[in-house]
Amino acid sequence: MDAMAEIKQVFFQECEEQLFELEAGLLTIERGDDDPETVNAVFRAVHSIKGGAGAFNLTDLVHFAHVFENTMDLVRVGKLVPTQPLIKLMLRAADILADLVRAARDDETSDPGPREAMAVELKAYTPGAAPAAVEAAKPVKAKVEEEFVFVPTKVDFADLDDLNLMPTLHFRILFQPSAELYAKGNETTILFRELSRLGSMSVTCDSSKLPALDAIEAEGAYFTWSVDLETSEDEEAVKAVFDFVEWDSALTIELIESAPAEEEPFVFQPTMVDADLLNSISDVPLEVPVEAAKPQLALVASKADKAAPSDDHAPADKKEAATATIRVDLERVDRLIDLVGELVINQAMLAERVAELGLARMSAVSIGLDELEQLTREIQDSVMAIRAQPVKSVFQRMPRLVREVALQTGKTVRLVTEGEGTEVDKTVIERLSDPLTHMIRNAIDHGLEKPEVRRAAGKPEEGLLKVAALHRSGRIVIEISDDGAGINRPRVRAIAVEKGLIAPEAKLSDEEIDNLIFLPGFSTAAVISDISGRGVGMDVVKRSIQALGGRISIVSRPGLGSTFTMSLPLTLAVLDGMVVSVAGQTLVIPLTAVVEILLPQATTVHNFGGNSRVMGVRNEFIPLIDVGQVLQYRSEDIDPKMGVALLVEAEGGVRNALLVDAIQGQRQVVIKSLEANYGHVPGIAAATILGDGRVALILDVDAVVVDSRAEFASSLPLAG
Amino acid sequence: MSKIVLTVDDSRTMRDMLRMALVAAGYTVVQAEDGVHGLEVLAGSNPDVIITDINMPRMDGFGFIQNVRGGEEKHRALPILVLSTESDDAKKQRARAAGATGWIVKPFDPVKLVDAVRRVAA
């Protein structure tokens, strides 16, 4: 059933939204907000999930949501105070609910253990807690199975025959509707129409209670109806017709054996009304007099007039507008990005051809070309914006992670997130999740102290973990800061010495010591804990961030906490680059790495051991790396004075000067993966196609710096 | 002309399911997301039957029914069916007190839903 499958998709999408609402609401309540609407929203979220789950027979989900909902309902009606432990419990219940939703979505069966334990904890809050707890101690699953126990029933075939030939029953129904019945939108004629579907019937109306014409109230009810019905249905079916009205009418349904003929039992003088006639009446609008219709229309019109201007700020439409989205296959967007990339290249080629013709700057062709360039750039930006997504989707997972890690480590943590709306390319977001997760684990596990330690240090027992995202100079910056103990520098140093990562007598600045934690094979935890120590160290985090073209840095103050800052490009598809020439080749250097451009002078460049050189920049000596040699375009030294030096900042803020022959200009280039089309080339990050149609390689600055150091080291056998 | 049913429910899943069942039975469906929205949609349309959820943001089902019953004469006597998850009498009772015509228990069976609509639709 296709339509059903589609709705199911919608259901799971909606569940994600509801789960987010649920968590956000619970966190708001946790902060002490007692707005009843928040509690309602939280309740509704669980309620909606339960409702939808019921429609798709997701029994596990329905059962758990039901237990959860019951406890939450008590909070909603004020019978249960949302204490911190209760909110924490509910947050964990929300996590379990999320797991159940995801298991249902992926058609997996989840481990019933956690949710059964949670159900017991939740039920403990509901009244009659003792018996509920006892009952809940039984596994829920067993309970479900009980409900579906197949009970064999012996059926006599003679009975079955009887069922097939249902005897005709005669019912006499006395029905006296009240005015309320009509006020609630029920209608006698419709009821009788439904009744007539059950069999053949005759209706009599007792109008004896009808007052004189001037005493009639337009919305009063004065008739009593008597219906004789011959049907093969049972009494339940007859009752079901009156299901909605039994409270607003006097109703008796009587099974009589004999055929309805004599009217003796009735005291009033009946008027015979034909059932068919009743059906025809139902098509005539009974209540509304024709005169009344006109002023009503006018009223509607005036209301509509009033409604129209208010539409501009109608809050009802706001939600609709905010969620007015379409879902597009990512492949289509990527194809579009590729095409726009080609368009940019083509436009650049055209511009160069035109430039070769030597046309005047103000010629119509040149002006048209400028406009084309601007449009192309705008299209490119717009296409990139399609892929841009707020980091919210990653941040959303953090509260749960923090809760879990806090629980495992026995620490209390308050998570504050900022800048969830900061947008970044989808591919960046996808690859952001793992490093971020690991860093948050680390911050709680290693950064924050246990409550008692914090108390002793005069800090609040609850540790603060802040995750913030912001845009800074064309990059996205993510800061993870804690108010913990900061990096234990003596210990980090001791471990690094012990593991042979540094020489025992090495003199390191505080910053250098902090950066030791990024070295491969470094792990500070004495016991490799379950949380941070999953065989993944900070070195892996650093590598994966660098693979995204990002940087990571630490600022730590003893006793006050640490801040890890990640800076990443907004997109992985285009790059602002500096186009340079090296040994007759054209290379692109990512602009984000370039700090400064320097012209080497005979007085500033010094030879330094082997064939290494350093360059003096404002009282500092910086290694000068000849890009041409590192990439093996040439083996001979060139005269630095003939080239240009680019001061670049590589990983960890290490500065180096890259020597190139000349700078051609600055350009936004579309990144083409070398790995996907050819293979990995050391020192090269990717490739691009330039305006003249030639392929240019994009330099991997960090790799070039590391390579040159390796060469430097090997050229100095004494140092080994 | 097919009869018009106004469905008021904050859950997209529920709205979609109602639409599917009702359209299959030949009804025209107009939708609203909560009580306030429901009243706005009602002002601009002429439904034959209203189906409303109870738990909704901004204005819940009870409030919505009260507003319809106490509102414009044109719509005051419209049949209103309430969608409720539980079949418990307390909820029904409250919906009835607010002026509901009848109720549908969620999760609903499309046949029963259409049955209930037919039972109240003129």
Explain this structure:
- The complex is a heterodimer of chains A (720) and B (122).
- By secondary structure, chain A is of the alpha+beta class.
- Chain A contains 26 helices and 23 strands.
- Chain A starts with a helix and ends in a 6-residue tail after the last helix.
- The model of chain A is unreliable at 129-149, 155-164, 259-270, 281-322, 525-535 and 715-720 (pLDDT under 50).
- With 122 residues, chain B is α/β, with parallel strands linked by helices.
- Chain B is 46% helix and 20% strand.
- Chain B is built from six helices and five strands.
- Chain B has helices at 12-24, 35-43, 61-69, 73-76, 89-98, 110-120, and strands at 4-8, 28-32, 49-53, 80-84, 102-105.
- The radius of gyration of chain B is 13 Å and the shape is globular.
- The model of chain B has no long low-confidence stretch (mean pLDDT 83).
- Classes of the chains: A alpha+beta (720), B alpha/beta (122).
- At the A-B interface, helix 1, helix 2, helix 10, helix 13 and helix 14 of A face helix 1, helix 2, helix 4 and helix 6 of B.
Counting DSSP E segments of at least 2 residues, the number of strands of chain A comes to 23
| Global mean pLDDT of chain A | 76
Biggest chain-to-chain interface with counts: A-B, 50 and 42 residues
According to CATH, the homologous superfamily of chain B is Response regulator
Helix vs. strand class of chain B: alpha/beta
Strand order in space, largest sheet of chain A:
15-19-20-18-17-16
Radius of gyration of chain A, taken over Cα atoms and rounded to an integer in Å: 39 Å
The chain-level structural class of chain A is alpha+beta
* Physical arrangement of strands within the biggest beta sheet of chain B: 2-1-3-4-5
Helix run count of chain B = 6
Specify the number of helices of chain A: 26
Percent helix among the residues of chain A?
A: 40-55%
* Shape summary of chain B: globular
Radius of gyration of chain B: 13 Å
Biggest β-sheet description of chain A: 6 strands, mixed
Can you write the helix and strand succession of chain B as a string?
A: EHEHEHHEHEH
Main sheet of chain B? 5 strands, parallel
The domain count of chain A comes to: 5
What percent of residues of chain B are in strands?
Answer: 15-25%
